[in-house]
Amino acid sequence: MFKGLIGKKVGMTQIFDQDGNAVPITLIEAGPCFVTQIRQTKHDGYSAVQLGFGAVNERKISGGEKGHLKKNEIPSVKYLREFNAKTIDVKEGDVVDVSQFAVGNHVDVVGYSKGRGFAGAVKRYGFRGGPKTHGQSDRVRAPGSHGSGTTPGRVYKGSRGPGHMGNERVTSQHVEVVYVDVEKNLLGINGSVPGPKGGLVVIKEARKQ
């Protein structure tokens, strides 16, 4: 059975379990999503379901996208994402929502981490920095030496150091669904998920069961 949704991160809150313990959860406004296309192995070389999410003004999408959606009389959507699926039990034009998930299910949530811009090595990788002694009080947050001298005589590619931080695709694997509200299209995930408030996330069935 196909399970997958596109949504937006609302924020974090907490609920209480049966024993009265506070459980931190992330609320996601998931769906409703339109099935915009079915990919078949015979024609496309792989099997997948394409979903559309997020209402948008028709003037803000391309002509090709309009034709793509008009084929199944689907309203204009802002986001299109594909989900690999071995067994497909939906058809083009269908609407899927949070009712396909239940409390206790495990899912993978894919999003983009918060962008931090250019960051130093101390913030980016947790480097200790240098001591404030022997006349180097201005080197406290410096990364220090990156390598040897003559050999190799250069810094290896991929070495940890200052650079762009965040805004990378991150997957929270095997997280538990602890809250489902079909009327409000809300999904509660145990713990945190990547991205800022309002960030786009993709929810799919956990790969590691």
A few lines on this structure:
With 209 residues, the protein is mainly beta. Helix content is 8%, strand content 40%.
- The figure for the number of domains is 2
CATH superfamily of the largest domain: Translation factors
Q: Which H/E pattern describes the elements?
A: EEEHEHEEEEHEEEE
CATH topology of the largest domain: Elongation Factor Tu (Ef-tu), domain 3
| Assigned CATH class of the largest domain | Mainly Beta
Tally of strands: 12
Q: What does the oligomeric state look like here?
A: single chain
Choose one word for the global shape.
Answer: extended
Q: Provide the structure class.
A: mainly beta
InterPro entries: Ribosomal_uL3, Ribosomal_uL3_bac/org-type, Ribosomal_uL3_CS, Transl_B-barrel_sf
GO biological process, one term: translation
GO molecular function, one term: rRNA binding
GO cellular component, one term: cytosolic large ribosomal subunit
